[in-house]
Amino acid sequence: MAQVGPLIATAFGMAAQDAAWKKPNQLDMEGALVARDKVGVQDFVLLDSHTSESAFLDNLRKRYRENLIYTYIGTLLVSVNPYKQLDIYTVKQMEQYKGVNFFELPPHIYAIADNAYRVMCTEYNNHFILISGESGAGKTEASKKILQFYAVTCPTTEQLQVVRDRLLLSNPVLEAFGNAKTLRNDNSSRFGKYMDIQFDFKGAPVGGHILSYLIEKSRVVHQNPGERNFHVFYQLLEGGEEELLRGLGLERDPQKYMYLIQGGCAKVASINDRSDWRTVRKAFAVIDFTERDTENLFGVIASVLHLGNIQFAEDSNGHAIIPRGTQIKWISKLLGVHLSILQEALTNKKIEARFEEVLSPLDLDLAYYARDAVAKAIYGRTFTWLVNKINGSLANKDLNQKTVIGLLDIYGFEVFETNSFEQFCINYCNEKLQQLLIEMTLKAEQEEYMLEGIEWEPIPYFNNKIICDLVEEKHKGIIAILDEECLRPGEATDLSFLEKLEEKVGHHAHVLTRKLADQKTRKSIDWMDFRLLHYAGAVTYCTIGFLEKNNDLLYRNLKEVLCKSKNGILRDCFHPSELENRRRPETVATQFKNSLASLIEILMSKEPSYIRCIKPNDDKEPDKFDDSLIEHQVKYLGLMEHLRVRRAGFAYRRKYEHFLQRYKSLCPETWPQWWGAESVGVEKLVKHIGYKPEEYKLGKTKIFIRFPRTLFATEDAYEHRKHRLSTYSGFQDTSQIQGMCREATIPENEESRYIQGFIHRKDPVNPENADYVRLVRCSYLTKLRDHLPKNVLDQSWLQPPQIMEQTSELLKKLCRRTLVRKYCRSISAERKAQVPPESLDQKVVTSAIFYRKKEGYNESVKEPFVDTRLARELRLILVSPLAVSEIHPKVLPMIQHEKIKYIIPVVKYDGKNFKPRNWLFALTRVAAYLLEAAKIKQKIEYKAIKGISTSNLKDGIVVIHVSEDTKDKQGDPVFQCEHLFETVTKLCMMAKKVDVVAVVEGSLQFQASPGKEVTMVFSAGKESKVYKAPNGQLIVVSPSRRAAGVLVSYDVFRPLGTPPRQRLSSCGSGDAATLRRGRAFHGRLSCGARMTPPRFWPSTEGVCQRSCSGDGGCQRQPGPPEDPLRPHQEARLNRDSGEARTSPLDWCKAKTPPGREL
Length: 1158
Fold this sequence. Notes:
By secondary structure, the chain is α+β, with helices and mostly antiparallel strands. The protein is built from 40 helices and 37 strands.
């Protein structure tokens, strides 16, 4: 850009009257550019490197660190969740943003709300505000802030106050029934919501209407570790009156309900269920719920909890029965259905033949499926009834035409470790909304250019219509293929759906499966997966459960029972007309596609505003900016694409009057006042400044500036001019400055006072030493601030002066408590969920088996046990078995009925030549399996296991000894696995044979094949290896910390094969094998023999405690060390002799030669 022209301050400096100069706190877009290096720019469009993701993140980071959580991309608002209270939502702030031009104040959600409201009132058209982002990004809070803004700033009357209260209180009701705690967010919306706020011709809110999308019904019956069911269940138990709970047959303890305990976190510190329950009860009264309505609603909630506690058993024929009738009696009472009919419907399925209906008994798995299907159906339909009830209370009966502002609070793009049917629907929704966003943004840009008379230049962008068509196209799209598999006769499975997908759309450039991918990509796609290349990136979906979730079927006889219910809500939700209609209902995917099409139609008829919410970190901590997480969200929210579209033309546009008012002082012709047309004044101004023709365009009412650097140079010139002019109102008399200097002068006697203070430093505080004591205190605290312990393990503490000892001790305790508290709070719910109670039980068993017997046990203690060691785990369609996508789909049906409890990759050594093979080891309820690709290689019945062996070294070898009379005897399985402690513990607990585990030393024998016994020898070496020796033995070498020829005991050294507590009779004349723990170490006895100390002894030379002739006749070794697992025991009695034992530290101090002190 050309240099700003000559500016003569003296010509008009004293006459400076620009209003902007007299308002230093004015924070409009241009004014904020002064501090752009520190706080970034308010609009991403003004980024010079607008295509750089790093520049985008850097600007976002700068603003977030200064608590500036809002930033624009044109008229789109980017909001970063601060995870703390900010003083920017007061009534004063609301009034400040009311009726103000969009760019006159800093970015704020109130500016978006006010702009939509003002344009609606002036142009009398409808608007919508689309709020999106991932769970925990602040979408629900954003919609609340907008509702609060309208409640405060819109005109109202006493009658309209009721409507306003109902609009505000509909939120806590919908949150109670539709929100839940997840790993990412303690108040996550598990449904999409669109709310229309209706305004009359005066701009007052007079009514509303809500649409809901895709409630997550599966959460009712299953929650992942660290997550909760919907809030309302916990609120009822925590806040409900005793009389109410008695009438519903409920107890306060959530741990007693199967549907509430699966996540393992019924209580959450950030959620006050009792207080929230009071808010919900108040909302029921305001929203006009009758007493009968609430009674029926509570009955439905309680019946869902009772359903979860129904347990089935098998009769002699393998059919499901309900052994205890307590829960089903309560359900019968609460839902008003006949007990025997309900019991029959839960254990039988009605099959319609040509001329008759037949009841077919259900097995256990199908009975649990039927139970869960009922729970999901009644909760899902009750939620729909609740939304309709709220809509009835918000409905405005006045038939006059109204304008509306819609709020769309909907899930953002979701990419998890395992993506299922729900993520497929959600991401399809985001594809459609992204398509709408780009189209409407381009349309708005084009219309503005046309109105201003600026030539429109076509903007290249990625059109994601090709992906939307791939999903929704009739007869050819993925949804059509899924529906076809769900509705066709014959046995359809998730695998057959995947095969049909490969057949129909396998040629599409945006679809990949394991079969269609190249060799490199195939490794990241599992057998049951398909991958879609979305606008925001690739997402891999696992098809397990797709058909069941899409069908969402409720057995006909169960539907008949619910249609006859005396509960008013269920009567409204389940109509008898459903039974008369013999057509199969629409699938979930088709319903969602149709409702999404209706939503898009609604949005296309309105003027848009957009809010994109971003979560700064996964720990919900304030002031923590996780670059990789935010980069991921910027990508999946399509922000860079939107910025590219906005910047394809002109980066900055401003009305002539605003531009001239700010920058008129830069041109003598426009300063101090311009009396002509604003467009002419702006033209003279930019020519005087030196704008080049390609840098700007003049429209009918606005100036368009193409490059941010042009605007920045203009703003810098304006700031320079402002400071030059301000010098004329500065200090005219230097006496003020001289006075300030005199105040800062140090008195001459200051030094002597400090010397006197040092001399009397040990006296009580008095005038002579007060200044010195104050200096010492300040100095110590300043140094301590920079030398505080970093974590709970850091025991260091700055030595205090004598006068600060008591204070230092108190500060040390306070700091210690703070570090402990900080550490405890830093433990995420996900980490806590990794250690469920059953895992701790398993750890106790592990300790009983391996403590002090096997190397590596200490390191294994801190690692939580899990149910799978494969890439990821999935839930099958039945009750709650574990399935893993890496299991070949041909193997899975053979064992899934046994409920897979644990699975891990192992290296199996065959019985002939001990060739290693990569297999899977799986544990079910009834047996253990060794799996290879599409085959079950060996089934090991638990009752056939007679022993489990492993060595005392770190080799990972497990031998399962099987009975001789086993029908399909193949020899004792020998395999190697990484997580041996976990595997052996789970195996012996599943087999209920904890006492058969043996930790052996040196060697063991096993049956390689029927009648063929082989010896396995364990030894220590430099590296791990397993091989067959010439003599037929299987040799296992591991890099052990123990000596090869001497086994280190916690009591004494002893050769391999000697009893554990037998003392060494001789030092021996040869070298013991070197222990390797960072460096070689050999102690030397006074007799000249060398010895190797245990791994936990200090690295120093030892001296024999008894005299020795040097011929190996030494009768005792150096004093043994303390137990490494019991460091608090300084000395303990020898179990053999009862003698006191010296601690290793004391022993080392006593025996270390001069000059070699530790």
